[in-house]
Sequence to fold (348 residues):
Amino acid sequence: MDGAGPPVVVGTDPARIGARDIPPGTALVLATSGSTGIPKRVALTADALSASARATAGRIGAGAWVLALPASRIAGIQVLVRAALAGAPVATVDRTGGAAFEAATRRLPGGIPAFTSLVPAQVRGLLETAPEALARFDAVLVGGQQTPPDLLERAAARGVRLVRTYGSTETAGGCVYDGTPLDGVRLRIRSGEVLITGPVLATAYVDDPAGSARAFPTLDDERWYRTGDLGSVDGGMLRITGRADNVIVSGGVNISLDLVESAVHTVPALRDAVVIGVADETWGEASVVVTAEGAAHDLADARAAVQSALGAPARPREIVRVDALPLLASGKPDRVALRERFGGRRLG
Fold:
């Protein structure tokens, strides 16, 4: 973890590393999930990775970990870094399902704290198939996307301590836990956008100086990261309201599709649905709910929930049912694939 060796580009032929414009001191080059567009290659130093891991230990404790996320993503990498800095073992989940997770949990040593990191879909499934195994952990980090309130309630009822995390590859993983920044991390809001600074920041995007300059501006002699997320800070607590680039204009009204999606998720049959924008001949743009579980008759409930939360102009126009929602390796919905598949729809 001293960064003295050659940088590692996860998922890339090592022979190609020397051809890249990799910043000095880079310990790891990691691709972003690409959930909102083309993945970027992020250069991280050992200091940034270690700062994140130590801040996590300062917040929730140090101990053994179960790795249930891809080690090609920052959330999985940080499981390994945290365990290494703690001098503790890691048990890996070799396949999906509750039985495999339970088996990995049993391999952890007794007498020391235990932790794992999951995405909401994994938590939801394990609460059904392996709730006792989940409850064995001192803390379960959950991130990758917003955690629905009903999932938090179900986990608490089962004695599972979920810790909601917010961050990205550019911040060496989650750096805000349950709305509060980790030690050394600071937030600011500029024109509605959440900015982050601290020792956890990545160095740059590899081979993308223009993108690096946009994403990591210097403000008041400090280097910050522009998250692209909209939010607010009240009493030191961060609240994310959506992506700055996930907005449609319907009838002249700006509508955050993230807020529409959050309201749609309050309908039980649509808790995992994804909301996308499509062209609308009357209003210019409108939202469509894509789901693998809901049915056409759930549209009325979804429209009522959205109207109650955001007003009538934000109501979705249609529900589209698919056999399965496309997912990225990180477990996030593949919104790009959904937009490519359904974004060409025109509503009359």
